Amino acid sequence: MSTAYIVEAVRTAGGKRKGALAGWHPADMAGEVLNALVDRSGIDPAAIEDVVLGCVTQAGEQGFAFARNAVLASKLPDSVPAVTVDRQCGSSQQCLQFAAQAVMSGTQDMVVAAGAESMTRVPMFSNITFHAAEGVGIGPFSPRILQRYGVSGFSQFEGAEMLARKYGLDRETLDSFALQSHQRAAAATAAGAFAQEIVPLAVGGGMHSRDEGIRADATLESIAAVKLLSEDGVISAANASQICDGASAVLVVSEAALKAHGLTPMARIVAMGVTAGDPVIMLEEPINATRKVLARAGMTLDDIDLFEVNEAFASVPLAWLKALGADPARLNVNGGAIALGHPLGATGTKLMTTLVHALRARGQRFGLQAVCEGGGIANVTIVEAL
């Protein structure tokens, strides 16, 4: 089986809801990261055989073959095909795995995995509206599904609370983790750790090149002052991921493409997998997925230098740490979605971009990325920096 290599990995700086990137059409934003891959790698854009792009809320400006529209908004020729993928929060991580699978199978030699989401211009859940008053549809969860699981609906907020209760995580622990996320992100930004991975976007006569959600002045007291989402719970907006606008992209190629185009790889895909479990607690599945992918790779957590576990809610990476006995010093070393934002469909390749750059900057070798997803699914990918 062929090896899949990452040649370039880029992302925009995150924009807050109604913030710096609110004026950017999501297709144009996605087009910019595609352009950056071409510019930085020096490849002939016509050599790209497919663009696999993640997006969760495929409606409005992100509807109607969104990935194809991203290609049309870029400098890629119209001969480059594209497809849009929704695996919820792990959409673009699944795109990366699809791209790697295409290369490893020998089907294709050069594929872009990408993601984009404007959570300002296309708000969450705007793709699941229905017209019950007219008797047309009852929403995405049929009575059969709800009866099977004995619920009136599925909620990631409730799943985050369930996870905290199961793993004995109190609010102070979650808030402390949230503070650490901001502190690490602020330190990484000040040190220039994100400089090489960020594609600046023109905004109001200037360039947007700094993640907008980082609160360098955050304190445990300010985080604790934020109202809980439920009276008897531990989850608040301050210890959960931020709504975010952004785009990201990774260029995946075969060894043959490396030689043919004179490319230098940044990393190689070591192992990958996707698993599914309980759709009610839903956010616990990265634990199971991590165990399975490590076993497939013949590795243990001790072999991994850095972990990126998406901070959808603080309870997710904290439960992951506790269940697996992982080293917290290696987790989300440059901060995570609590500080940097979680642009849904763009998050998978965004995290991989940060992970690969962080490994190379630190002279470290192996990285593991895990993302929880709606419906109780999780993707895990292991890479080796080169």
TrEMBL record:
UniProt superkingdom: Bacteria
Residues of the active site: 89, 342, 372
Domain (Thiolase C-terminal) ranges: 263-384
Keywords noted in UniProt: Acyltransferase, Transferase
GO molecular function, one term: acetyl-CoA C-acyltransferase activity
Xref: Pfam families: Thiolase_C, Thiolase_N
Start and end residues of each Thiolase N-terminal domain: 5-255
Family, as annotated: Belongs to the thiolase-like superfamily. Thiolase family.
UniProt-listed PANTHER family: ACETYL-COA C-ACYLTRANSFERASE, BLR7806 PROTEIN
Protein name stated in the entry: Acetyl-CoA C-acetyltransferase
Organism: Novosphingobium piscinae
